[in-house]
Amino acid sequence: MTASDMEVLHAVASTGLGIALLPAFLSVEDLRARRLERVLPDWNAPSIPVHAVHPSMRHLSPKVKTFLDHLQARMTPPPWERGPAP
Questions:
Q1: Which end of the chain is more exposed for a tag (fewer CB within 10 A), N or C?
Q2: Is 0.90 topped by the overall pTM?
Q3: Could you tell me how far CA 25 lies from the centroid of its own chain?
């Protein structure tokens, strides 16, 4: 099966109908609950960086600076690499 919708691929894999290349943020809870299993644990898909595009830091509004600080704090390390959910 080929699909461009990650939710469809996630549903197919989590019901045991096949394997899928899924992003960690979409599958982390199923991996923790053992509804999904990594079949190639030593392999990772190439990472895709996230960029925040904003005006220069010199004229950055306090709201944008606060938002960027929040993103940095929440995404380092990525939430799906932090271990079991509380």
A1: C
A2: no
A3: 3
Cα 34 from Cα 73, distance rounded (Å): 28
Q: What angle do CA 84, 82, 68 make, to 5 degrees?
A: 135
Return the DSSP state at 5.
-
Residue closest to 69 by CA, chosen among 84, 79, 85, 57: 57
What's the token pair of residue 77? 């390390």
pLDDT tens, 48-83? 777 888 777 778 888 988 998 898 887 777 666 666
Token pair belonging to 41: 């644990």
For 41, other C-beta atoms within 10 Å of its C-beta total 7
The three-point CA angle 17-18-19 to 5° equals 145
Residues 6+ apart with CB under 8 A from 37: 31
Quote the CA–CA distance of 29 and 51 in Å, as a whole number.
25
